DNA sequence: TTGAAAGCGCTAACAG
DNA sequence: CTGTTAGCGCTTTCAA
């Protein structure tokens, strides 16, 4: 398994150039030599060395993906789509876990640069200037997944968070709810936090419903615990609410759990709608109604865009992916 | 960012050999030249080309990880540990999603071989002869994660499934339960299916409790749906049970959900214990008692073992990781 | 302490 | 149709 092109050439009585041509499906050899060479390759079990190829072709057929968090199920869904699309293009994917840590991120970027990867997918986090500048210098294409940059011209794929939040709230309103609260994620999160709050507020005002500050709970993050604390606070400061829009499924499940503890019946006493439609949404009791993002497709799309950029050398258009309410039994 | 060692050498008025020595922390240069070269490197932002290095050093500082499934949360946990340990060693990890598909797996193995990765972690699936033979030919070390081979001498890291299942059942017995059922995963799964059933049976008989065929539900897999169907079947064929040991948390959550639907109160009417202690275990209502595997640590351990094999050229001992009952409120 | 030169495995002109 | 040769960017003898 450690035969080189030389071994093949020698054994087949041809030059290495000929072997190279045949291996790369080029032209310039007779059917006969092709057969002979292919036989030898088969016999030796020769596998071209991608490292050597990468050195000369300046293409490693490898892309890098940066994730701020590894917990949570968003990651696997994204990764699944990314990996699928990459594999279809004959490329591999290197995963990097940045922990939202600037220093770590830069080290990863440097590592990816040394490895001469062909492109980068940057996910779920704001693209800092430092990152952008570095990647720009690397001269490899990049696409943003589930995030976007308001300042740099980098193509992204994500859903429209404001719009999705609007839809969720609107859905609650259509079901007859008027006193609708929101347990938001981090409101300082310019990508996933603020827009969802805005969507909620827009939907309320567009429907002539009052927006009460007491009805909006700002959490630190999008986690389960934020949901349980959020619902508790909500019940204290706004006991009259009949429905809540949670900024993530984890928050929703947390709220569900707290409601159960408090003896509040869902959906009879209180309706809850989540956001993300993770697999846990269908596992909760009652099953959670949620606004779905097509996570795997988003990963796939981002990867395809990346490959298009690699091939054309041009940038591509960003994609807003469709969201969709998945009705289950929590509303 | 595309400067080469030559550029550095020229600008610093030294030979490329000297630059190489300095970059690699070797000896054989004056403090003065070192300073000069380092300055130039800094100025140019020179990054050594890992591809060229890989070609000559025969080490790519990249490992490959094969996962049969990408859904589920086991993956992220494992990956998180693997990625952490690999990163500490200055290596990257390429993820491969085999879908338990033999053909796909072989293609991945081939790809990894062409890329000349330094080692392989093979997870959660039985190591087929074909895979083993190929990897052996690749001459790279491999370790098994959350699986083991009864026929090939490949080091693995996993918990003792039989023992863990025994512990879970024993725990139920200690809590005073006698009529204990099990909703198993796939009983033909020689790694994660059968051993857990055996552990359950052993614990029952060791405690003088009868093992009733009706008390064992064999599912197709370890998924949520298997749990809901499992509990339903169980209630039909063995209504008297007071506790159930589920072969996975997803099954347990499914059972929990069905119980809720059926008006069975957990833990009052029925106790349920899960297996894996995934993050969903603490999100259920009531929170699920579960036997925990240290997933991230297992990934980390497997990776460390892999690196040890790479360094020493020798095989290493397999590791049985400790399991542990996490008490919550479903028992 | 330094440099020249060979070569890792491969591709791509350039000849023939 | 086929072979020779010059690198890709780097490490590593071998001399100086």
UniProtKB/TrEMBL annotation, chains A, B:
SUPFAM superfamilies assigned: lambda repressor-like DNA-binding domains, Periplasmic binding protein-like I
Molecular-function annotations in GO: DNA-binding transcription factor activity; transcription cis-regulatory region binding
Keywords assigned: DNA-binding, Transcription, Transcription regulation
Ranges for domain HTH lacI-type: 3-57
Organism: Bacillus canaveralius
Pfam families the UniProt entry points to: LacI, Peripla_BP_1
InterPro entries the record matches: Cro/C1-type_HTH, HTH_LacI, Lambda_DNA-bd_dom_sf, Peripla_BP/Lac1_sug-bd_dom, Peripla_BP_I
Domain HTH cro/C1-type: 3-44
Protein name listed in UniProt: Catabolite control protein A
CDD domains associated with the record: HTH_LacI (cd01392), PBP1_CcpA-like (cd19975)
Cleavable signal peptide: none
């Amino acid at each position: 398994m450690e035969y080189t092109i030389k071994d093949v050439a020698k054994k087949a009585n041809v030059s290495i150039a000929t072997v190279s041509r045949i291996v790369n499906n080029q032209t310039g050899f007779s059917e006969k030599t092709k057969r002979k060479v292919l036989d030898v390759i088969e016999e030796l079990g020769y596998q071209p060395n991608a490292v050597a190829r990468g050195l000369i072709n300046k293409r490693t057929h490898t892309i890098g993906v940066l994730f701020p968090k590894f917990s949570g199920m968003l990651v696997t869904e994204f990764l699944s789509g990314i990996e699928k699309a990459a594999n279809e293009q004959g490329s591999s994917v290197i995963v990097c876990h940045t922990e939202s840590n600037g220093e770590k991120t830069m080290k990863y970027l440097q590592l990816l640069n040394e490895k001469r990867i062909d492109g980068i997918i940057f996910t779920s986090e704001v693209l800092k200037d430092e990152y952008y500048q570095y990647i720009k210098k690397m001269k490899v294409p990049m696409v943003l997944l589930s995030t976007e940059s308001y300042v740099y011209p980098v193509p992204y794929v994500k859903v429209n968070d404001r719009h999705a939040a609007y839809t969720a709230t609107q859905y609650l309103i259509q079901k007859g709810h008027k006193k609708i609260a929101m347990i938001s994620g981090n409101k300082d999160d310019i990508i996933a936090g603020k827009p969802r709050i805005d969507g909620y507020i827009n939907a309320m005002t567009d429907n002539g419903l009052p927006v009460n500050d007491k009805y909006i709970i700002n959490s630190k993050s999008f986690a389960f615990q934020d949901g349980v604390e959020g619902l508790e606070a909500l019940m204290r400061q706004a006991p009259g609410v009949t429905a809540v829009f949670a900024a993530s499924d984890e928050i929703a499940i947390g709220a569900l759990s707290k409601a159960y503890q408090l003896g509040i019946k869902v959906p009879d006493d209180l309706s809850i709608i989540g956001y993300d439609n993770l697999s846990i949404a269908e596992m909760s009791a009652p099953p959670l109604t949620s606004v779905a993002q097509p996570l795997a497709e988003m990963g796939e799309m981002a990867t395809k865009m990346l490959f298009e950029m690699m091939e054309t050398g041009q940038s591509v258009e960003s994609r807003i992916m469709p969201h969709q309410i998945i009705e289950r039994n929590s509303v």
